[in-house]
């Protein structure tokens, strides 16, 4: 995988539910795998916003186009929402470590919260191409905040929707229905993308039910290339040692049972290189 810094012309930008669907002309884009992300410069030249914004790649066509889904929350994404077809933005892509696909056909569950579903159609297609059963759980606070329901129905064996307020599907959270799906289908792998509390809960449910989980974390990524250190989190390595790793380089996809979810946004005292009491 070779990331490139590109000047991409906006082909279209249009609302999809509560989100915006951005399609970019990206003739230099290489092959994108499920879980890769793009780092977009925001604010324009001289705009004062130095840090890029990271977005999961929704779809792409090598040498042609790149698509992302985003919500205009902060200053950077609000600026991006004001751009129009024909405008040019600076993008670095594809970045990060993607989801790891199973070598053999196994039953898999895809779990996504809100527009965390953006990269999951690409993942579902990849899993199905390997003969895997794919069940999907999509959750959101309310129906308007769901994304990709119809598209994922077309590339999976089943889709279950949950909403906190019951406006669509099952009233509740994704973890309310996940255990039964794992047990019913003998699911061995769970793939998740969404808010950190959801990922923590999904990883725990997967482990309790004997499934292997991979989570695409939503840490604050800025540079996207491992320089700024804004996206570090504690992850246990193969040797059992906890290290502060960069979500943008070593991630954004991590094994769910390796992330120390309760210690995110801290440096655990037993982490490699952690400051010692008294400075020794």
From TrEMBL:
One of its GO terms (molecular function) is oxidoreductase activity. PROSITE patterns: FAD_FR. Its cofactor is [2Fe-2S] cluster. SUPFAM superfamilies: Ferredoxin reductase-like, C-terminal NADP-linked domain (SSF52343), Riboflavin synthase domain-like (SSF63380). Residues 3-101 form the FAD-binding FR-type domain. GO terms for biological process: pyrimidine nucleotide biosynthetic process. The keyword Flavoprotein applies. Keywords: 2Fe-2S, Electron transport, FAD, Flavoprotein, Iron, Iron-sulfur, Metal-binding, Transport. InterPro entries: Cyt_c3_hydrogenase_gsu, Dihydroorotate_DH_ele_sf, Dihydroorotate_DH_Fe-S-bd, FAD-bd_FR_type, FNR_nucleotide-bd, OxRdtase_FAD/NAD-bd, PyrK_electron_transfer, Riboflavin_synthase-like_b-brl. Belongs to the PyrK family. This is Unannotated protein. It comes from freshwater metagenome. The lineage of its organism: unclassified sequences, metagenomes, ecological metagenomes.
């Amino acid at each position: 995988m070779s990331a490139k810094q590109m000047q991409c012309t906006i082909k279209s930008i249009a609302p999809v539910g509560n989100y915006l669907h951005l399609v970019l002309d990206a003739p230099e884009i290489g092959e994108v795998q499920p879980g890769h992300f793009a780092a977009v410069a925001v604010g324009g030249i001289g705009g004062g916003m130095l840090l890029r914004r990271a977005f999961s790649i929704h779809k792409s066509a090598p040498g042609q186009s790149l698509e992302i889904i985003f919500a205009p929350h902060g200053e950077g994404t609000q600026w991006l929402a004001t751009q129009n077809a024909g405008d040019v933005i600076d993008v670095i892509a594809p970045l990060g470590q993607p989801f790891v696909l199973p070598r053999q056909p196994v039953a898999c569950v895809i779990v996504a919260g809100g527009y965390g579903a953006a990269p999951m159609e690409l993942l579902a297609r990849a899993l199905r191409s390997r003969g895997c059963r794919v069940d999907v759980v999509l959750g959101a606070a309310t129906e308007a905040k769901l994304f990709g329901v119809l598209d994922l129905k077309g590339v999976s064996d089943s889709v279950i929707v949950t909403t906190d307020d019951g406006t669509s599907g099952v009233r509740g959270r994704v973890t309310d229905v996940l255990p039964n799906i794992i047990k019913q289908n003998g699911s061995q792998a769970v793939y998740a993308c969404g808010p950190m509390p959801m990922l923590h809960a999904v990883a725990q449910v997967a482990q309790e039910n004997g499934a292997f989980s991979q989570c695409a974390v939503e840490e604050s990524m800025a540079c996207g290339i491992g320089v700024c250190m804004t996206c570090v989190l504690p992850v246990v390595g193969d040797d059992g040692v906890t290290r502060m790793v960069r979500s943008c380089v070593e991630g954004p996809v991590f094994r769910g049972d390796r992330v120390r979810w309760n210690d995110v946004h801290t440096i655990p005292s037993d982490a490699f290189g952690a400051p010692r009491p008294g400075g020794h």
